[in-house]
Structure formats: C-alpha cells, structure tokens
C-alpha cells in the first residue's frame, strides 16, 4: 500500500536527507560500532591468529590449534562487516521510499539478521574463550590479539542485541501506524444499495400475439355453413 506517513520509524517520504540527524541516531552509532567490532575480530584472527612452532612448518590457529574456531570467527566477522555497510545504506535510502511494504521488508530483514548475529556472536565468544582456556602452549602467541578477539566478540553481542531491539521497535511502530491510519469507509444506513450500485432496469413485456394457452382443448372447428355433413342411418 502506498503511504506518505512516517511508517516503520522513518521520516516522511520525499523529505530531504539530514546527514547530521542521521549520524546522531542511536541506531546509526551502534551499527557503526558493530562494524568496527567486526573488523577487529576478523582482522586480528587473519593477521595474528595463526602461528607455527619451531618444530612445525605450517601455521596453526592460536585457539587450541583449532582451525574451525579461527574460520568461524573470520566468517562471522566478515559477514557482519558487510551487513553493517548494507544496512547503513538501507537506513539512508529508507526515508525516500514511499511504499510502506518495501519499508516493512527492510525492517524485517534488519530484525531477523540482527537477532541471528546476536546469537552467532554469543557462540563465537563462548567458542573462542573455551578454546583459549584449553590452549596449553602459549609461547610465541600474540596474546593481545587473542584478548582482542575474545573481548570484541563479547562487545558484539551487546551491539547486535541493541540493533535487534531498535529494529523491533521500528517494526512495531510501523505496524501500529498502519493499523491506526486505516479507516473503514462510511456506510449510509438509509441506502439499500452501495453508493456506486445502480439497480438494473428491464423493459416491460407486451403481449402482441394471440393467447394460445386459454383455448379449450379438443374443440372441433365450427362448420362455416352452419350445417353438419353427418346424416343418421335409416333402418
């Protein structure tokens, strides 16, 4: 449905973009922080998350030599980094959308993704902390990078949780606006038909022919001479 109201928590469609107001929005600030946290996590793992001992040629993951832990952290971080950019651009173009249905889809995507990544960052934090606690040989491992990965994974839980909350508030605000703005059309109780309905008219039936249904059955035709040709026999 087309709507020019402030549906789904954004300003009126067609209004100019206010950069200062956009930057000061809590959702924009938290999304930018989530973007930074994601960079720290996957960059720290990529740059300093693999080391090799003096007896090994191939570098191993610093988190208990678990390659899956490092791959998980890099994957979650890279996807979160790209998603933050995509949703920031969506927040920029959302006020210019006049179609409330398109706004709804974007807000629902934001809500679903933010909720999912809140959970995935929680899994990442638990995995990294557990694997690091099981790491026995820490010689040659850059502990600052390890601590940064664990800490910013934990920070990402809070930031993406806040983004989920803001997306939920925006979604509920949009649903309430659509519900309140809908008004049933007035109905005239004195009119037997809708205002746009016109009863059809039919032409009157005119019987121009002879009514054949009132003629008595089995009536012999009268003799035009008035005499009957029948004569009784003579005995």
TrEMBL record:
<dbReference type="InterPro" id="IPR008253">
    <property type="entry name" value="Marvel"/>
</dbReference>
<keyword id="KW-1133">Transmembrane helix</keyword>
<feature type="transmembrane region" description="Helical">
    <location>
        <begin position="106"/>
        <end position="128"/>
    </location>
</feature>
<keyword id="KW-0812">Transmembrane</keyword>
<feature type="compositionally biased region" description="Polar residues">
    <location>
        <begin position="224"/>
        <end position="235"/>
    </location>
</feature>
<feature type="transmembrane region" description="Helical">
    <location>
        <begin position="32"/>
        <end position="51"/>
    </location>
</feature>
<feature type="transmembrane region" description="Helical">
    <location>
        <begin position="148"/>
        <end position="168"/>
    </location>
</feature>
<dbReference type="Pfam" id="PF01284">
    <property type="entry name" value="MARVEL"/>
</dbReference>
<keyword id="KW-0472">Membrane</keyword>
<dbReference type="GO" id="GO:0030672">
    <property type="term" value="C:synaptic vesicle membrane"/>
</dbReference>
<dbReference type="GO" id="GO:0031594">
    <property type="term" value="C:neuromuscular junction"/>
</dbReference>
<comment type="similarity">
    <text>Belongs to the synaptogyrin family.</text>
</comment>
<feature type="transmembrane region" description="Helical">
    <location>
        <begin position="71"/>
        <end position="94"/>
    </location>
</feature>
<feature type="domain" description="MARVEL">
    <location>
        <begin position="22"/>
        <end position="172"/>
    </location>
</feature>
<protein>
    <recommendedName>
        <fullName>Synaptogyrin</fullName>
    </recommendedName>
</protein>
<dbReference type="InterPro" id="IPR016579">
    <property type="entry name" value="Synaptogyrin"/>
</dbReference>
<feature type="region of interest" description="Disordered">
    <location>
        <begin position="182"/>
        <end position="235"/>
    </location>
</feature>
